[in-house]
Design brief:
Elements lengths: L1 E8 L11 E5 L3 E4 L6 E2 L12 E6 L2 E6 L5 E3 L11 E3 L3 E6 L2 E8 L28 H14 L7 H35 L14 H4 L3 H9 L9 H32 L3 H7 L6 H5 L4 H15 L2 H31 L1
Parallel strand pairs: 3-4
Antiparallel strand pairs: 1-2, 1-10, 3-5, 5-6, 6-8, 7-9, 9-10
Protein name: Type VI secretion system-associated FHA domain protein TagH
Pfam families: FHA, T6SS_FHA_C
Organism: Parahaliea aestuarii
């Protein structure tokens, strides 16, 4: 029996893993963040455990065991399998490992996924029409109509002919990159132990709950009913969430910083420290060290809160720029 594993989604910074395939025949494997695993899943934020899980092969069957800290999720389940628990892998099984989405396919013999269900049709294949009427003329008509709807005039024939393909590629790229940003936002919320998006009966945003850009496109444009938001509404909501996240993160950072600084105000410390063992010696006779600290704090306060605020922003800006530089360098390295 052959086990084929495909990486469908990967964390931010590990995009080179997407599309990678791994194959195992009549044998088990371990998977996780550590290099000692059979399947190594890099994860800068360490949502993937060093050894996240184990797959055993016995009597022609593959069984997966959860050995993780943050949970192993099967086939879109919102509840993890649970440490020590196991589940048999079917012909096709989706496993969520941290921010990774892995597709496990079990097949007989040496041909991977030979008996797996046929893949879903691409979004374009969902449309049914008479191919005999789909001529070069209709392609040109479609390109002209698209150009007019976009307010484009005076295009050359070659540019006009390539317009539908370029717009399609742009749409797919836009959706894919928006999903990556939403994934990074989701990772931050997980790190802060905050609630994340869960699938509902209706009005789901396909950009937040889909594994790939193609899945999101199919759900937004080809699915009927009210399970998913319309395309434009989904994209607008996604951009609003991304913008709100940026503003909220900065505001929360400043608020927490101000609250931490306030805890070191002399009178606040005097109210808390006397109860501690030996703290009385610190304040007895207005000790020199304490007096120096009080004078320093008052000097800073006399210059206004802006001076402390500006110092924080200066350091924050430097750290932000350095991390941004590292991310861009990493992206350029993977692009080359």
């Amino acid at each position: 029996m052959q086990l084929s594993i495909k990486v469908v989604r990967a964390p931010t910074g590990c995009h080179q893993m997407v599309g990678e395939r791994f194959s195992f025949v009549d044998r088990g494997l371990t998977f996780g963040r550590a290099q000692s695993n059979d399947l190594v899943l890099p994860d800068p934020l360490s949502f993937v455990s060093s050894r996240h899980g184990l797959v055993e092969f016995s009597q022609g069957r593959y069984t997966v065991y959860d050995q993780s800290t943050n949970g192993l999720f099967l086939d879109g389940d919102l509840v993890p399998l649970g440490v020590g628990n196991s589940a048999e892998l079917g012909a096709v099984t989706e496993l969520r490992v941290g921010e990774y989405l892995l597709l496990f396919e079990v097949s007989e013999g040496g041909v991977a996924a030979a008996e797996a269900p046929a893949p879903k049709p691409a979004a374009a294949d969902v449309i049914s029409f008479d191919q005999s009427h789909h001529t070069a003329v209709s392609d040109d008509d479609m390109a002209v109509e698209l150009a007019l709807r976009l307010g484009l005039h005076g295009m050359s024939e070659s540019r006009l002919h390539s317009l539908p393909d370029e717009v399609t590629a742009l749409l797919r790229s836009c959706i894919g990159n928006v999903m990556e940003v939403l994934s990074a936002r989701r990772q931050v919320k997980q790190q802060l132990k905050m609630d994340n998006t869960v699938i509902q009966r209706s009005d789901n945003n396909a950009l937040k709950v889909s594994a790939t850009a193609d899945d999101a496109i199919e759900r937004m444009f080809a699915k009927s009913g009210d399970a998913y938001l319309p395309p434009e509404q989904a994209l607008v909501e996604a951009f609003h969430d991304i913008g709100d996240h940026q503003v909220a993160m900065m505001a929360a950072t400043l608020q927490v910083y101000q609250q931490v600084v306030a805890r070191f105000e002399p009178s606040a410390l005097e109210a808390k420290l006397p109860a501690a063992k030996g703290a009385g010696k610190l304040f007895s006779g207005k000790g020199k060290l304490w007096e120096d600290y009080t004078n320093l704090y008052e000097s800073i306060a006399a210059n206004g809160a802006d001076s402390v605020h500006e110092a924080f922003l200066r350091e924050f800006s430097a750290a932000y720029s350095e991390n941004l530089r590292k991310l861009k360098k990493e992206r350029q390295k993977h692009a080359s």
